[in-house]
Design a protein that fits this description.
11% helix; single chain; 2 helices; OB fold (Dihydrolipoamide Acetyltransferase, E2P); 11 strands; disordered N terminus; globular
């Protein structure tokens, strides 16, 4: 059976790792990728907020995805990165174990996510993409934070400004 490439649009996704899993997010949601720097802790912030960093004069909160997804907390290595994202007018960073590549994936190759994928709440997941022998969990960064949590993040920003 011949693969019909016109079945879906081809989009670029940034692939990153947390633990043993690989995740993909649309490149359009990413502003930049930086080396991991130590975040300044902010009192009374949500448990998944690692702290804040100064990124060229802009104070941005950092979300630790291991904590956000209730995954095993392991030490970050030299491969760890902060992916700076912008969604719904909010800019924040997400801390991940590694960033491996940018892939072009045909949207028709992304299947709906099963109800439970590696223990992560399904509200964050848009689907699963099969890329060669790998499975990438596709994330929706818009849904990473609830409205209440976005308000908390903005409060963290205002307190630190």
């Amino acid at each position: 059976m011949e693969h019909n490439s016109s079945a879906g649009a081809e989009c670029q996704f940034v692939v990153f790792g947390i633990g043993t899993e690989e995740y993909g997010v649309p490149i359009t949601q990413i502003k930049e990728i930086n080396r991991l720097t130590t975040a300044t802790k902010v009192p009374k912030s949500p448990k998944f907020i690692e702290g804040i960093i100064n990124l060229r004069g802009q104070i941005i909160p950092i979300v630790d995805l291991k904590k956000r997804f209730d995954l095993e907390l392991t030490e970050y290595t030299g491969d760890a990165r902060i992916i700076v994202i912008q969604v719904n007018g909010s800019t924040f960073g997400v801390q991940v174990d590694s960033v491996s590549e940018v892939l072009r994936i045909n949207t028709s190759d992304i299947e709906p996510a099963p109800n439970i994928v590696s223990g992560i709440d399904s509200r964050y997941i848009t689907g699963v993409a099969k890329v060669e022998e790998r499975l990438l969990i596709m994330l929706d960064l818009d849904k990473l934070l609830t409205d209440e949590e976005k308000t908390q993040l903005n409060t963290v920003n205002e307190q630190s400004a």
